[in-house]
Amino acid sequence: MKRILLSRTDRIGDLILSTPAIATVRASFPDAHVAMVVSPYNGVVMERNDDVDELVVMPRGVDPRVFGRMHRGYDAAIALAPRAVDLQLVGATRAALRVGYTYERRWFARLTAPLLVNRLMISEADPELCERNPHRIVRHEVVQLLDLVALAGARSRVVTLRLDVREEDRTVARTLPTDPIVVHLGQRWFRDGSTLPATLAIVKRLATFAPVVITCAQECEDVAPVFEAAGDAARLLRRLPFHEWAAVFERAQIVVTVDTGATHVASAVRRPTVVAFEHRYFRLNSQEWAPYGVPHVLVRKPGNNNAASLARFCGDVERGVASLLGR
Question: Domain range holding 314?
């Protein structure tokens, strides 16, 4: 194949998990021109990645079918996300080989996807089936994507995540305490089985192990002053550019986060991680989106916010950190 188009236009974390599959395409077809369609939001993951020859940003609000028709002339097109947007884009390219995947019980997608792609993988990832059968095995998303690109003939497997952090990105990280515990704040710390007071308590407990550095997602700017006022964190960092944020994780001895893209940034910079997954659909999410290739502890958030449940949750996070520290 001389020209290959890849598409993934959803979340940053999912695109990070796609980097082994992208590298596998490059390793399998070293002489091909590989183009990658991204969104304005997630493209930062790939802007330094030379496994692709061309980065194509699909503007917000554009019909993916129209955008796909603008990118014809490829021998193969692969949708790396099981979303209508990426499947429609790939289908509209009319590439001779069009590959994509969807989930087992997305019946409408299974019915319509063959109209868009001519090689379709069905993922076993299904939240309800996993809850009914606690022994159901779901491949990690990295593995699913490697199996997906194999349908296009890409079999020189690369299994490591890639994120290109440079020296200039480490300026802020170098000012931090040595070997901190980095806690990333996302909205899921403050709802559905976790609360602001519980998260403050977790930070306080973790500060007894090592200096705590907090990174703050934009959505959590309103609670940042509460953590600053508590005084348990050595530093609180807001509005970091993406690669500087990754460099802060790189400096950590452990990253502690809820289930967000931070999990996969931490894996990409090879940091042990404690992740608090949602109570609902824990069995699926903790398999498909667990930290990849690094030591980790997975914690299930409680199903309610009563005092006993919150106390157990705080203890689970603390014990997870202690076990990764070897204490």
Answer: 170-324
